[in-house]
Amino acid sequence: MKVICVVDSISNINSKIDMIKGHFGSDICFVVKATLEPIFKTFGYNANAVYYNQLTTVIHALLLKSEPSDVLIYYTSLKINENLLNKFNTKIASRNKVVSLMPRYNTIERMNNSAYNVYVKAMFKIKDSMVSPKLQFLPESCALELLNTHIGNKLFELNPKLSVTLDIEDIGDKEINKSAKTHTPVLKTTLISIIIALIITMCLLITLAFANVGALLIIMFVCLYLLDIVLTLILQYKSKFDHRFLK
User: Fold this and answer.
1) Has residue 186 got a pLDDT over 80?
2) pLDDT at 213
3) Rounded distance, CA 222 to CA 216, Å?
4) H helices of the chain, where?
5) Predicted confidence band at 30 (pLDDT cuts at 50, 70, 90)?
6) pLDDT over 90 at 112, yes or no
7) How confident is the model at residue 107 (pLDDT cuts 50, 70, 90)?
């Protein structure tokens, strides 16, 4: 089994690598975030590849150079313990299914994920599985198929017969659950959309004060508000998709 260790955090790096080696072997390729590479070297490890923004492209290129094998992808920003790795190893079992880690989402997150998946389904005709990208096992046959398309596709929904998930709820660790999620930064366009909404509101108030307001005018302002909200959500969901599948 080949382990792709994405070094996006150096917190407790030695103990995390030791635990991964103990459960999945020492055939590890380190893909290191560019800003962390100098510090990472001080721990006595060498980077097999360095990434800036296009992480999955780097992983894809690295796997293409390797012999076909089962692949485990692990991000060091995910907090791990023996209980998690033991249960994950049990899920892998015969190594013929994709095994993923499923975070526990609260009600607001589930609602946001549902809206986000409307965008994903509209763009790609398939939904995001919402599993964590930070710990995933890919059997050799699946890894080869993904390398013929794009390794980032591993996060799309898969046939239940070909995949299985480990729910973090079964682990019962809030810190692991928090670290398993991807966090999308707030875009500058969000601030712009707020400014636009304020401008629309100002125009509406001026119109109400100095003009006769008809039904068509009210509908126009409502449409402007809706357009502002929809465009903001689309840009935010695109950013979320990029961070999960590409970065």
Assistant:
1) no
2) 72
3) 10
4) 13-24, 37-41, 55-64, 82-92, 107-124, 140-147, 174-180, 188-210, 215-245
5) very high
6) yes
7) very high
- When comparing pLDDT for 171 and 29, which is higher? 29
Q: Other C-beta atoms within 10 Å of 86: how many?
A: 10
pTM above threshold 0.85: yes
Total residues found in the chain within this entry: 247
Secondary structure of residue 20 in the 3-state scheme: helix
Cα atoms in the Cβ-side hemisphere of radius 13 Å centred on 155: 24
Q: 124, 152, 120, 150: which is closest to 136 by C-alpha?
A: 152
Do 235 and 189 contact (CB within 8 A), yes or no? yes
Q: Reading across the β-sheet that carries 71-75, which strands appear in turn?
A: 49-51, 28-33, 2-7, 71-75, 132-138, 98-102, 163-167
Amino acid occupying residue 210: F
Collapse the DSSP code of 100 into the 3-class scheme (helix H, G, I; strand E, B; otherwise coil) and give the result: strand
Antiparallel, parallel or unpaired: β 49-51 and 71-75: unpaired
Q: Which residue has the tokens 């607001």?
A: 108
